[in-house]
Amino acid sequence: MTKIGIITGSTRPGRNSLQVAEWVKGIADQRGDADYELVDLAEYNLPMYAEPVSAAYSQDYQTPEAIPWAKKIAELDGYVFICPEYNHGVTSALKNAIDYLYIEWNNKAAGIVSYGSAGGVRAAESLRIIMAELQVATVRAHPVMSLFTDFVKMSEFKPAAVHEKSVNAMLDQVNAWTNALEPLRKGSSE
Strand 151-152 vs strand 156-157: parallel, antiparallel, or unpaired? Predict the structure, then answer.
């Protein structure tokens, strides 16, 4: 079965991304069309990127924390990024985690669920550009949450019911693209 990782986008104490990721996983698990797994960046404890050689050229990772991270990302067929917006961009934790790898991301599909004061759309657009460089196809459907209307006091996630439909639309597209890219993934691993 196709494996889709739902990746949290923040590691800070009191973060909202874990609540959002758990909500997305709850919706996803009702579908039965893929094996969905919550991938919490905080559990990988990645230090600031300091590999001596870019992951585009070598997967001989020197940072011990990079090895389990690389294994996890490689075993997934597609992704859903939970993308909070910090200062009009992706979080440093998410960008750092992405930069650790290259080949492990290639020829996969990703959806983005964003949130912030303006729905996180600027961070999501930034993430799309990053994903393009990694040969990840991001899908069009994009659930957008507001800190003002989908969170109580900007910290307790209480999404509007309408968002479930957009999450399902995004998951439909992630699964379709993930399956369409399967021949490329298989070709690159042979």
Answer: antiparallel
Q: Sign (positive/negative) of CA torsion 158, 164, 166, 167?
A: positive
Considering only CA atoms, give the Rg of the chain. 16
- Structure-derived torsion over alpha carbons of residues 60, 62, 68, 70, reported in degrees to the nearest 10: -40
Residue of 136, 12, 175, 33 whose CA lies nearest to 84: 12
- CB atoms under 10 Å from CB of 179, counted, come to 15
Joined tokens for residue 62: 């020197």
- The pLDDT tens digits of the residues spanning 31-60 come to 999 999 999 999 999 999 989 999 999 999
Phi and psi at residue 111, in whole multiples of 5°? -110, 160
Rounded to two decimals, the pTM is: 0.96
Q: 107 and 125 in contact (C-beta within 8 Å)?
A: no
Judged by phi (left if over 0) then psi (alpha if -120 to 50, else beta), residue 41 lies in alpha
Mean pLDDT score, 49-76: 95
| d(C-alpha 150, C-alpha 116), whole Å | 10
Two structure tokens written together for 32: 């039965």
**pLDDT tens digits along 3-28:** 999 999 999 998 999 999 999 999 99
What is the rounded distance in angstroms from the CA atom of residue 36 to the CA atom of residue 34? 6
